[in-house]
Amino acid sequence: xxxxxxxRLYPDAAQxxxxxxxxxxxxxxxxxxxxxxxxAHAAGLPYICDGDLSKLVITEAKKTPQRSWLAEVSAxxxxxxxxxxxxxxxxxFASITGKRKGPKMAAPRFRSKxxxxxxxxxxxxxxxxxxxxxxxxxxxxxxxPVRWSRNLPSEPSSVTVIKDAAGRYFASFxxxxxxxxxxxxASEVGIDLGLAHVAVLSDGRKVDxxxxxxxxxxxxxxxxxxxxxxxxxxxxxxxxxxxxxxxxARVADARRDFAHKLSTSIIRDNQAVYxxxxxxxxxxxxxxxxxxxxxxxxxxxxxLEYKAARYGRTFARIDRWFPSSKLCSACGTIAAxxxxxxxxxxxxxxxxxxxxxxxxxxxxxxxxxxxxxACGDPVRPPHAVARVGEAGSLRGAAA
Length: 399
Prior knowledge:
Layout: E1 2-9, H1 13-42, H2 50-59, H3 75-96, E2 118-123, E3 129-130, E4 136-138, E5 142-144, E6 146-147, E7 158-163, E8 169-176, E9 188-193, E10 197-201, E11 206-208, H4 212-215, H5 217-228, H6 235-269, E12 272-276, H7 280-283, H8 289-295, H9 297-310, E13 314-318, E14 344-346, E15 352-354, H10 355-369
Helix pairs in contact: 1-2, 1-3, 2-3, 5-6, 6-9
């Protein structure tokens, strides 16, 4: 499987200037290609194919006085920017025709130099390399210092250089790795996601929600107020913008680090992991939106999924309409209602339940029931409509 390894870069002043030029050239090529296709569509002309578009906005554009500076950056950067545009169009067409699953994709939009994130990609044909001294050699940019936090498992197929809103530079390598199977263990776990506790496990363990955004609210509010007092367009305002971005970056980094450590621990200690398929986008439109985003459920579940695939574990999502909270894990009785204010309850069978732990136990049981047996069939038989001869009692059966 292909995975990404990301490292911090520390370019000097000249290299930052070269990277800024590369970011701008890639953005111009992307926008020129998008404009050419939009103009052709408006004029009733056929769709411009990928090869003709590359000749128009890269090869021929370099010969004009208006775009001659495109030759000052690596040609691979320009080609990869156009490849991103082509991918965006294919995704858009597949979405509107129904071939692409998931939410509908919008048409490609123009890129702005004021975007918080700028990125360029070097493919293998760009001949980027890692020097003997541990620096990243990029064509027409130079040898950029890298902070290596871990070794790359194999030769990278591409590297993306990213500048975030806080002014930090990163190198994101795409490498191919084999499955790193962990030793099999007997334990399996169901996970109930929440806000008071970000994860409640079926074995009774509760992981408190760190609430990174809430804890940093005071510093963020102070930085936002300082930004609001600065004159638009001034140098001091630009500095204040970076301070706000750095404050948000610290929150995002802490949340990502917490999710990585928690997901790795769960995958390492359990052979199978089951979670509820929550509608995070729907919950993010409620009054709990800030808390839902701060919990980072989607990123955490995505980490569980790809780590399970990488390390040979089983991962599955349970139907979001499964009544995990209202179902008694002891007798199987479903309660009539279960408001969020009810954190513990006693079933008619006499079993006392903690709401979240009971939900996690039910999620584990549902995940096990939905797994395939040795014959490839589900363990839990699917619901089937009774045939006409089975719909009622046979005539004369009671005689």
